[in-house]
Amino acid sequence: LRQHLRAHTASGEGWICCGVPRELRARFGLSEQVSSRTFRGMERVGGCMRHFENRAGLEDHLKEKFNAC
């Protein structure tokens, strides 16, 4: 059960919609005009920086039909 719970929860701050690494922008259909940000030392594009308590919540967020993330 503990292992299952660890799979769904991150230590400390939870899960964050932080976008994708800049070098993968084309793979995800993001144009050059999408602004980037540094997150944990890595240049990233997309993402809304919304926090989620568990991985399932983040996955649901990313699957939303009208989600720009």
SSE map:
Blueprint: H1 2-8, E1 15-16, E2 20-21, E3 36-39, E4 42-45, E5 51-52, H2 55-63
Antiparallel strand pairs: 1-5, 2-4, 3-4
Q: Structural class of the helix and strand makeup?
A: alpha+beta
Radius of gyration: 13 Å
**Secondary structure: number of strands:** 5
The count of helical stretches stands at 2
Helix content: 10-25%
Sequence of strands across the biggest β-sheet: 2-4-3
Q: Helix-strand pattern, N to C?
A: HEEEEEH
Specify the biggest β-sheet.
3 strands, antiparallel
Q: Give the averaged pLDDT, no decimals.
A: 85
Domain count:
1
Distance between the amino and carboxyl termini = 31 Å
Global morphology:
globular
Low-confidence sequence ranges = none
Task: Note the beta-strand portion.
Answer: 15-25%
Summarize the structure.
With 69 residues, this protein is an alpha+beta fold. Helices cover 23% and strands 20% of the residues.
What does this structure look like?
By secondary structure, the chain is an alpha+beta fold. It has one domain. The protein is 23% helix and 20% strand. The chain has 2 helices and 5 strands, in the order αβββββα. A 3-stranded antiparallel sheet has the order 2-4-3, with no helix packed on it. The protein has a two-stranded antiparallel ribbon with strand order 1-5. The model has no long low-confidence stretch (mean pLDDT 85).
Summary tags:
69 residues, alpha+beta, three-stranded antiparallel beta sheet, two-stranded antiparallel ribbon, 20% strand
